[in-house]
């Protein structure tokens, strides 16, 4: 049985919606997902389970656009700034909106965190541009590919 800890932040519920669409796709393949909100997580929570999923929208945290959600930023760039991910397989989901110049830039912020902390990116990040409602098929297809990678990791 493969276990995935999915840590996410959300303000509008969009990121949570994407994860709620993803969980049954992975469960069908026997993968257990534990959902955790970033604001409740301690650094060591990133090390729980066989693989780590980080999911964040793109926000104007700190005053400039193209940043992580404020709760994800506080976890990754402050509380967990010294964590060593020890080659843990890491999966990324980033949300954004095409009205912004730095559209979906949270992807890069999440990838930088994984690479700087010794994590091993698994597959391609899922980029959700604009509202996730109506984009469930995209999540399902990505989730099915992810399940294959997780089961082989
Ligand atoms: C104040 C504000 C700033 C935002 N900044 C960006 C941005 O820089 N780039 C982007 O692609 N989307 C940006 N967005 C859009 C959000 O990333 C998008 O609505 C996302 O789906 C929010 O998901 P969440 O509420 O689950 O975090 C911004 C939205 C707001 C309200």
Can you walk me through this structure?
The structure is a single chain. The chain is an alpha/beta fold and about 150 residues long. Helix content is about 35%, strand content about 25%. Strands 1, 2, 3, 4, 5, 6 and 7 form a seven-stranded mixed β-sheet that branches. Helix 1 (about 15-25) crosses helix 4. The chain is globular and about 40 Å long. The termini are close together. The model has no long low-confidence stretch (mean pLDDT about 95).
Average pLDDT rating: 97
Q: What overall form do the CA principal axes indicate?
A: globular
The description of the largest β-sheet is: 7 strands, mixed
User: From the helix content, strand content and strand pairing, which structural class follows?
Assistant: alpha/beta
Q: How many alpha or pi helices?
A: 4
Bound molecules: flavin mononucleotide
Query: Which range does the strand content fall in?
Result: 25-35%
> What's the architecture, going by CATH?
3-Layer(aba) Sandwich
Order of helices and strands: EHEEEHEHEEH
CATH topology: Rossmann fold
Q: Rg, please?
A: 14 Å
How many strand elements? 7
